[in-house]
Structure formats: structure tokens, C-alpha cells
Amino acid sequence: METGTSQREDHQQQAAARRRKELLEAADRVVLRDGPEASMNAIAAEAGITKPILYRHFGDKGGLYRALAVRHTDALLASLRNALDAPAPDRRGRVAATLETYLVAIEARPQVYRFLMHPADHGQQQEQGFDVGHHSAPLLRRMGDELAKVIADRVELGPGGEEVARIWGHGIVGMMHAAGDWWLRERPCSRERLVHHLTDLLWGRLALVDDRIGAPGF
Fold first, then answer.
1. How distant, in Å, are the alpha carbons of 106, 163, 209 from that of 158?
2. Distance between CA atoms of residues 76 and 139, nearest Å
3. What's residue 38's pLDDT?
4. Which of 34, 99, 111, 146 could cross-link to 38 by cystine, CB 3.0-4.6 Å?
5. What residues make up the domain containing 14?
């Protein structure tokens, strides 16, 4: 009896996970179309369900936003890790490739970027249920933490290195976000020029430190 109950519970959990994925994919389609103006009504309609059912799967009005944020942050972090791990002619080339990867990602899906980073731009938070309190800070914090780990693992920073890595990780992510946000809105120069100048800005101390012994190069 216990085995049968366990199998039923597993089946229910798998079905719920599949349904949740389908709803997130429907939400993605609406966000790609509408950006920050994506509404809960539109997402429910795209998924062929009612809003109460949408809320049931994501807990509360902010739950869907948080789930989408995790989904897209996971994808972006995977791309950034691949850029950091890919062969590069030198450390400067790896830094430039990582910056390029971030900018390509936000340029390729600007509506998704604006939805995640500027959910309040159009003043429709109440109808959408995307509380301004769930804006970009948690996403940027996660990216900063991840980059800090990479720096600490790969670069020899000497005494106090863990603190330095955390400062660098969050500082670099903050710079990428601020510069990328400005660039995406105003397009004052080519992406290549932006990458070049941001790499110059980062290059000072990074050019001087050594890689950790036995660690992948940074």
C-alpha cells in the first residue's frame, strides 16, 4: 500500500512540475511579446487557464515573477560560466568574452530583460501582481555571488582574498548591469566599443594578479 501511495505521489509531483514548466513557457511567450506590460490576465489567457489557477501553481502574485527570474537567471549564469570556461587567448580576452556574453543576452531578449529588471516601468504592478519589491536586486545579488566564487577559486588575491573577491564580484556585476542598462536604452555606441571600454576599466588589478595554482585560468 505504501509503495502504491508513493508512486501516486511521485506521479502527481511529476505532473505538477510539467504543468508548472508549461505555464512558465506560456509566461515567457507573453513577456517576449509585451515586456514589462505583460499582465497576469494575458499570461493566464496564453496558457488557456484562469488567473486563480495560475496563482495556485505559483503561490502568490509575486511567485510567477520570482519563478521567471530564477529561470532566466539560471540561463544567463550558465552562459557566463561557459564564457569564463571557454578557451581564450589571454585573461583579457576572457574578461571581454564574459562582458560580451552578458550584453548579447540582454540585447537578444530586451523585453525579457526589461520585464525582469524594470517591472514597474509602466505603472501596472497591481494588475500584474509584480511587486516592485521583487525587482532586479535579488537577481544581481545572485550574479555577484556567483562571480565572486569564480574569482576566489581562480585568482590568487593573497590575505583577505575572499573579501576582495566578493567586492570584485558584486562590483563587476553592478558595473555590467548599469552600463548594459544605459546602453540598451540609448545605444550610444556599438556593443564592441562598449565591451572594449569596460574591459579597459576592469583590466587594472586583474592584469597584475596570478592564477591560483591548479585552478582554471581566469
1. 34, 10, 9
2. 10
3. 85
4. 34
5. 2-211
